[in-house]
């Protein structure tokens, strides 16, 4: 397991820091029996993959431009350096801070969204920046006490500890000037010139540049400057265009990555200003702010604890030590960047931005965009295979052309032998050899698809910015985008995901009486109202703000807290008055394991009350009596069945049931010192039931349709909730997760405790049958995820709480909630659903499938060009000693198929057809039988037609008797080049719909695709008609243009006929791979 849950509900997330456990590696091997351990590119999941696995595939990849190929994969060396730097900063934070500030003063190497203010000591405040920073940094408790504790410090910072600072812009500005802003300087992103520098470092392009330089020199020497610069200059120009387009594409992707990273960093949090709770960006936090802290939050700045109840902080991200630190008056200092592991409290901000160790850490390490995805790794394997074939073909072509040349078998178009031993000058021979070598290198450029692995990144980024702006998503891991398309099951929360998260108390039972309406206090005895008000006000992490001008009351907190607070206010509760009249002695924060939370309160008359609130049936089980509506204590023995039936009735109506109970306690038994009080376990026996409330949270509109879409797409939706099993059943029926009430039997619907008590093997068998799990703990969700993955499922999990982090981390795709989700949950997730809506989860599935489909379209298109270009040049070279497609022409084709092709096909919008297919399996071949069929038909057609033109073109075109043989040869080759490009342009339409007859469906709505096709066509016309000197082509008359278009357009009806040919279900790769694996296993067994 990646996380454990202690008895008090504390999740030990520090285990996640250590990385992936051996158990998880075994888990991956278990569910993937088809995995080939000897294949470095056979990685089913890169999430949490060990570094050794990631190193293997990098070392196995054939790469001619590593800086570009691996640009969006994890830089393993840099990751190691980053960890070392973190450790160094922790050890020498202050020295580094001083050096960094000194460097910042002298250089302009850093940038920030907001200017990093130059702090000035003193000013309007009784304490300066350095005094504050020194106290917080070194945890100087005596200094804090010297200032009069947190209360004295708040006076020096002109902050009201209860109401916070004012929302006055002038006051906020003064604080930023005096103490700095909560931003930190970040290293500038790489400039466009850096991308240009990287793009030209491709080994093949360097060789072409050298060849172009040699050709240029020889051409000028032999033919003079006016005519001699064309050959070399045209190659130079073509290489420059390739470099420019590549660099521009990569630079734009880099900017998009920066935007994604910025979205991740901009955390929204709650602060108390002017007495009300408001949400602000973490960047807007200032010294003196009062910030509420709840379980799962990130500490947004350095600060001092004001009040805290069982507050435990995970400081491992800053100290490197895997332990939880409990905060109290003796240990009040809080460090920015740490996580709240348990409890709740409020803090006074004393340090922000670069004046915190977290800010210093963030300023010193640049965020790495790298992260490989399983598809990226597999594409590197494909690129390596194609590259080896292409390199072999290029070497073969080079050898054949050189052999034919030096044996006198290569002729000019007019029949003149190019090389005659003893008669051909060295300069002419050398120039011819350079041209032959250039052709071979260009074949490598076309054959080695360096851009293929980058197609994943390009597809995801373009897709994100074109189609997902309307969907409330934040992508944290790009790999989740493609993995989501393979999801076979979604384990969804109920509250806020399937439901609206708009909770209202609609039923209330006090005593044995149903209060109707539930807010009618006249039906209750004043003593009951008083106890209920006290319990709701004190046993709550929410807050109530009553405007002085008599406006609407503002309630903050979780949806459940807000519903109960709103109900109590309508009963007559005065929140502030109750909190001021009594003192909280100890708090047991709400615990998702025990499903309840409690508080001990000392009243003004020295009486102690202990209030509990939580899951109705669990609190009821601890009650020995109840107060009736007249305020009289009654025994529970005879009436417990009545309350249990009432809870069942509420749950059957889809209501969330919450019980409120209390008990009196002797003051003498309350621990007197703070340390003992912190360890005090609140008694939870002999409770007196005050009320049972039913909270309505209606299903989201459209959720039933969304669930049906998933079911039709072969994705099973499972509900995993902490609610009552009957409430879960009712909501599942309402949402369409369960089809009918008659089918609802165990194990289709099961309680978490039943599932966790099973053996591991039984859980694996049971998991496949479970549709609804009620009263589940976060650990139950983790066990379910592990069991499903062992069964071969690709699991997506939604979660919002801190304790959901292990399940989010373990799942193939972790989906955290943007509204309800804690920072710990968000950091453990891969995608954040900002609107908490299940319909958005379905859109992510659709998006993931579309990303995968678009990449397959691009692969089909690129491989068609690869196969056709290679075969045409090889056959022509072997048979005639010449190639119809020269270097400049092949570079242009390379540009069409690589960058422009990826961009055009990566932007195809998702179609409804995608959600009518079954999910793509982990072992599904990247190149399917359908793709092989389409690819081979088009490549065979192109090769056949163009080779016929190459060998019989002069006769077919009536140029055999042309007096100018060289011109006739140029016309033929120009037609071959033009027809070849036209084939690619028309085939780009075929690639849009590999399985559908109508490849034009929706094409006019994809403006980028149409724009790229139009741009390619216009450039081709310009090349043929006006740039003949550069591309060694001549102008074609309108008849030959019609021939070129005709050859290209035939690919459309050919594709339709091809799609009618059935293909076997067994992947073609299996016929080739299986014998090798059998041989290998036989050898291993021997």
Automatic annotation (TrEMBL):
UniProt subcellular location: Membrane
Root EC class: translocase
One family name in Pfam for this protein: CaATP_NAI
Region spans: Disordered: 1-50
Keyword annotations of the record: ATP-binding, Calcium, Calcium transport, Calmodulin-binding, Ion transport, Magnesium, Membrane, Metal-binding, Nucleotide-binding, Translocase, Transmembrane, Transmembrane helix, Transport
Transmembrane feature ranges: 195-220, 232-251, 382-406, 436-467, 858-878, 939-959, 1007-1028, 1040-1061
Membrane topology: Multi-pass membrane protein
Biased composition annotated in UniProt, kind: Basic and acidic residues: 14-33
UniProt KW Magnesium keyword: yes
Top-level taxon: Eukaryota
Cation-transporting P-type ATPase N-terminal domain span: 149-220
The keyword Membrane is assigned to this record: yes
Swiss-Prot/TrEMBL catalytic activity: Ca(2+)(in) + ATP + H2O = Ca(2+)(out) + ADP + phosphate + H(+)
Assigned protein family: Belongs to the cation transport ATPase (P-type) (TC 3.A.3) family. Type IIB subfamily.
Role, per record: Catalyzes the hydrolysis of ATP coupled with the transport of calcium.
Protein name as annotated: Calcium-transporting ATPase
Lineage start: Eukaryota, Viridiplantae, Streptophyta, Embryophyta, Tracheophyta
């Amino acid at each position: 397991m990646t996380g454990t849950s202690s008895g008090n509900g504390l999740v030990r997330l520090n285990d996640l820091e250590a990385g992936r456990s051996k158990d998880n590696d075994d888990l991956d091997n278990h569910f993937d029996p088809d995995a080939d351990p000897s294949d470095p590119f056979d990685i089913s999941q890169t999430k949490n993959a060990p570094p050794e696995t990631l190193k293997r595939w990098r070392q196995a990849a054939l790469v001619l431009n590593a800086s570009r190929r691996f640009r969006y994969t994890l830089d393993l060396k840099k990751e190691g350096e980053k960890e070392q730097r973190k450790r160094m900063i922790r050890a020498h934070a202050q020295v580094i801070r001083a050096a960094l500030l000194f460097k910042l003063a002298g250089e302009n190497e850093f940038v920030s969204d907001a200017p990093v203010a130059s702090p000035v000591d003193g000013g309007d405040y009784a304490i300066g920046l350095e005094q504050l920073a020194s106290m917080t940094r070194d945890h100087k408790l005596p200094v804090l006490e010297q200032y009069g504790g947190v209360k004295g410090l708040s006076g020096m910072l002109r902050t009201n500890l209860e109401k916070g600072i004012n929302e006055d812009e002038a006051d906020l500005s003064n604080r930023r000037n005096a103490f700095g802003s909560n931003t930190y300087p970040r290293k500038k992103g790489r400039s466009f010139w850096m991308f240009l520098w990287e793009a030209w470092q491709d080994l093949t392009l360097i060789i072409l540049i050298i060849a172009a330089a040699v050709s240029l020199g020889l051409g000028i020497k032999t033919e003079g400057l006016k005519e001699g610069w064309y050959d070399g200059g045209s190659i130079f120009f073509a290489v420059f265009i390739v470099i420019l387009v590549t660099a521009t594409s990569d630079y734009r992707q880099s900017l998009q990555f920066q935007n994604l990273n910025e979205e991740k960093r901009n955390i929204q949090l709650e602060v108390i200003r002017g007495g009300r709770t408001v949400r602000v960006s973490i960047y807007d936090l200032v010294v003196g702010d009062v910030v509420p802290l709840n379980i799962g939050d990130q500490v947004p700045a350095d600060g001092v604890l004001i009040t805290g109840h069982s507050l435990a902080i995970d400081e491992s991200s800053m100290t490197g030590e895997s332990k939880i630190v409990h905060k109290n008056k003796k240990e009040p200092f809080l460090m920015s960047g740490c996580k709240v592991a348990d409890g709740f409290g409020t803090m006074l901000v004393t340090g922000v931005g670069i004046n915190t160790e977290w800010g210093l850490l963030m300023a010193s390490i640049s965020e790495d965009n790298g992260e490989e995805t399983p598809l990226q790794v597999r594409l590197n394997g494909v690129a390596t295979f194609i590259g080896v074939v292409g390199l072999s073909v290029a070497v073969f072509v080079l050898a054949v052309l050189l052999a034919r040349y030096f044996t006198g078998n290569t002729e000019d178009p007019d029949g003149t032998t190019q090389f005659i031993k003893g008669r051909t000058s060295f300069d002419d021979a050398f120039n011819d050899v350079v041209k032959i070598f250039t052709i071979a290198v260009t074949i490598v450029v076309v054959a080695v698809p360096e851009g293929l692995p980058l197609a994943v990144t390009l597809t995801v980024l373009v897709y994100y910015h074109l189609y997902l702006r309307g969907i409330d998503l934040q992508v944290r891991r790009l790999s989740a985008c493609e993995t989501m398309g393979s999801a076979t099951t979604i384990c969804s929360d109920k509250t806020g995901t399937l439901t609206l998260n708009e909770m209202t108390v609609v039923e209330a039972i006090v005593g044995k009486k149903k209060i109707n309406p539930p807010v009618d206090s006249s039906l209750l005895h004043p003593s009951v109202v008083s106890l209920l008000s006290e319990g709701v006000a004190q046993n709550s992490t929410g807050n109530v703000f009553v405007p002085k001008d008599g406006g609407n009351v503002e309630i903050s907190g979780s949806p459940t807290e807000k519903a109960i607070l709103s109900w109590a206010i309508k009963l007559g509760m005065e929140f502030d008055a109750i909190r001021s009249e009594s003192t909280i002695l100890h708090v047991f924060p709400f615990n998702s394991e025990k499903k309840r939370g409690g508080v001990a309160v000392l009243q003004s008359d020295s009486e102690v009350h202990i209030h509990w609130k939580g899951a109705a049936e669990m609190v009821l089980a601890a009650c020995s009596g109840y107060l009736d509506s007249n305020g009289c204590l009654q025994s529970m023995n005879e009436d417990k069945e009545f309350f249990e039936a009432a809870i069942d009735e509420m749950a059957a109506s889809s209501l969330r049931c919450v019980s409120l109970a209390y008990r009196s306690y002797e003051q003498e038994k309350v621990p007197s010192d703070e340390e003992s009080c912190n360890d005090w376990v609140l008694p939870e026996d002999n409770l007196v039931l005050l009320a049972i409330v039913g909270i309505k949270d209606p299903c989201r509109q459209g959720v039933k349709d969304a669930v049906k879409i998933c079911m039709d797409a072969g994705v099973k939706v499972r509900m995993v909730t902490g609610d009552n099993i009957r409430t879960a059943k009712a909501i599942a029926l309402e949402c369409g997760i369960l089809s009918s009430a008659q089918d609802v039997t165990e194990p289709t619907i099961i309680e978490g405790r039943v599932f966790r008590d099973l053996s591991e093997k039984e859980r694996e068998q049971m998991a496949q049958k479970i549709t609804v799990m009620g009263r589940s703990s976060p650990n139950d969700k983790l066990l379910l995820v592990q069991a499903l993955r062992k069964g071969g499922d690709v699991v997506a999990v939604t979660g919002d709480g801190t304790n959901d982090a292990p399940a989010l981390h373990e799942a193939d795709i972790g989906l955290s909630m943007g509204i309800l989700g804690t920072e710990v949950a968000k950091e453990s997730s891969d995608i954040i659903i900002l609107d908490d809506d299940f319909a958005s989860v379905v859109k992510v599935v659709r998006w993931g499938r579309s990303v995968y489909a678009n990449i397959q379209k691009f692969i089909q298109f690129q491989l068609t060009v690869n196969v056709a270009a290679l075969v045409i040049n090889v056959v022509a070279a072997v048979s005639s000693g010449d190639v119809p497609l020269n270097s400049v022409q092949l570079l242009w084709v390379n540009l069409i198929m690589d960058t422009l092709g990826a961009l055009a096909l990566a932007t195809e919008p998702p179609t409804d057809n995608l959600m009518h297919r079954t999910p793509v399996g982990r072992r599904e071949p990247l190149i399917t039988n359908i793709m092989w069929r389409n690819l081979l038909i088009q490549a065979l057609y192109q090769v056949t037609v163009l080779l016929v033109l190459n060998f019989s073109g002069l006769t077919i075109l009536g140029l055999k008797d042309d007096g100018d043989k060289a011109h006739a040869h140029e016309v033929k080759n120009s037609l071959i080049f033009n027809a070849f490009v036209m084939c690619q342009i028309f085939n780009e339409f075929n690639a849009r719909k590999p399985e559908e007859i109508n490849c034009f469906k929706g094409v006019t709505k994809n403006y980028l695709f149409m724009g790229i096709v139009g741009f390619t066509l216009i450039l081709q016309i310009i090349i043929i008609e006006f740039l003949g000197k550069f591309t060694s082509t001549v102008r074609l008359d309108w008849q030959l243009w019609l021939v070129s278009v005709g050859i290209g357009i035939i690919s459309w009806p050919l594709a339709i006929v091809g799609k009618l040919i059935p293909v076997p279900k067994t992947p073609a790769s299996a016929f080739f791979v299986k014998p090798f694996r059998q041989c290998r296993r036989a050898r291993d067994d021997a």
